[in-house]
UniProtKB/TrEMBL annotation:
The gene is dusB. Residues 21-332 form the DUS-like FMN-binding domain. One of its GO terms (molecular function) is oxidoreductase activity. The keyword Flavoprotein applies. Belongs to the dus family. Keywords: Flavoprotein, FMN, NADP, Oxidoreductase, RNA-binding, tRNA processing, tRNA-binding. This is tRNA-dihydrouridine synthase. It comes from Antrihabitans spumae. It comes from the Bacteria. InterPro entries: Aldolase_TIM, DUS-like_FMN-bd, DUS_fam, DusB-like, tRNA-dHydroUridine_Synthase_C, tRNA_hU_synthase_CS. It is an enzyme of class 1 (oxidoreductase).
Length: 384
């Protein structure tokens, strides 16, 4: 059994378990977060970490776009409420963060500077932006200034850099802490890697050595509770951020909570228990989106839930096309409830893709001190 991990303090927030659910577009809506929290309560007896909503665009939030406001929905008992902003402009950042605190929309603001998607980096957003050190610092400072006098902490998530020739994480961590960020999180890949290959946990250790006055969280390749324990032991990081590892495994947070508290991990669910979890996920999605859209949203989760289980190709196809709660119940009833959680279900999951050159605005690398706001980089839709 492991020695218990220390609680994680992020500004005014104290988390019993140093685990954060990473925002994922189309995944970490109120339905998924509620499911993760319910399963942690049921299987580990606690809700101990931080569950972050899907990324929302600061400009879309300020403009009160209905789809973006819908994404900021939190459950009636959800606390702390954590909202992630994508932003490129200090002024819009301030307005969005001020709106969040003035209207009591969330208890924590995270800022995303890690997105490697070409449509984002091509305009200077996401993982491209920390290269512009002055602009990056002004954006973080704007969010912190908007939250002054409140209990809402601001945190910042970023990658190692643009590519192997342009690492930005040490500067980004130093600047974010200096501007008042309450914690920083590092996805230990470059933008060029996207989600391919292996995360370089050594860079998390380097950041932890470099940033000593606020917590440093590590992200990348945590697919089991043992991975989180090992990351914290090897890097000295103060907490872990989990993304793709929980796809089709919303009960992972119960396992993480137990392992990091030094308790035995709960036994993974049988196929029958997974079927109950899928049905609950569908019910929550239907509550949030309506039954038609909710079931369409569920479809992408099906292959993750059934990974490694013997389910038959016809049943898998039918589940991937499911369109109503009643139909879902009929299909789930065809699964063998006695099958234990398979070894084949462990390991990496979710998108991986291939590394590639990072699309950047023309001349982006010429002057890291240039603080001109990149044109059109804040027009992307919320969610990534």
């Amino acid at each position: 059994m492991n020695n218990p991990a220390s609680p994680l303090r992020i500004g005014s927030l104290e988390l019993a378990s140093p685990v954060v659910l990473a925002p994922m577009a189309g995944i970490t809506n109120v339905a998924f977060r509620t499911l993760c929290r319910e399963l942690e309560i049921a299987r580990a007896g606690s809700v101990s970490g931080l569950y972050v909503c899907e990324m929302v665009t600061a400009r879309a939030l300020v403009e009160r776009q209905p789809a973006t406001l819908h994404m900021t929905t939190f459950g009636p008992t959800e606390t702390p409420r954590s909202l992630q902003l994508y932003t490129v402009d200090p002024e819009t950042t301030y307005r969005a963060a001020k709106m969040i605190v003035d209207e009591n929309m969330a208890d924590h603001i995270d800022m995303n500077f890690g997105c490697p998607v070409p449509k984002v980096t091509r305009k200077g957003g996401g993982a491209a932006l920390p290269y512009k050190r002055t602009l990056f610092g002004r954006i973080v400072a704007a969010a912190v200034r908007a939250c002054e006098g409140t209990d809402v902490p601001v945190t910042v998530k970023f990658r190692v850099g643009i590519d192997d020739a342009n690492h930005t994480h040490l500067d980004a961590g130093r600047i974010a802490a200096a501007e008042g960020a309450a914690a920083v999180a590092l996805h230990a890949r470059t933008a060029a890697q996207r989600y391919s290959g292996s995360a370089d946990w050594n860079e998390i250790a380097r950041l932890k050595e470099h940033v000593t006055d606020v917590p440093v969280l590590g992200n990348g390749d945590i697919f089991a509770a043992a991975d989180a324990v090992r990351m914290m032991a090897e890097t000295g990081c103060d907490g872990v951020v989990v993304g793709r590892g929980c796809l089709g495994r919303p009960w992972l947070f119960a396992e993480l909570s137990a392992a990091l508290a030094g308790r035995p991990e709960p036994v993974p669910p049988t196929l029958g228990e997974v079927a109950v979890i899928v049905a609950r996920h569908a019910e929550l999605l239907a509550d949030h989106h309506g039954e038609d859209k909710g079931l369409r949203e569920l479809r992408k989760h099906v292959s993750w839930y059934l990974r490694g289980f013997p389910a038959g190709s016809d049943l898998r196809v039918a589940l991937a096309l499911v369109s109503s709660l009643a139909e879902l119940d009929d299909l789930l009833a065809q699964l063998d409830p006695t099958i234990a959680f398979p070894k084949d279900a462990e390991g990496p999951r979710g998108r991986q893709g291939s590394p590639g050159n990072v699309a950047l605005p023309e001349g982006w690398l010429d002057d890291p001190e240039d603080c001109l706001v990149p044109a059109g980089a804040d027009l992307m839709h919320s969610g990534g």
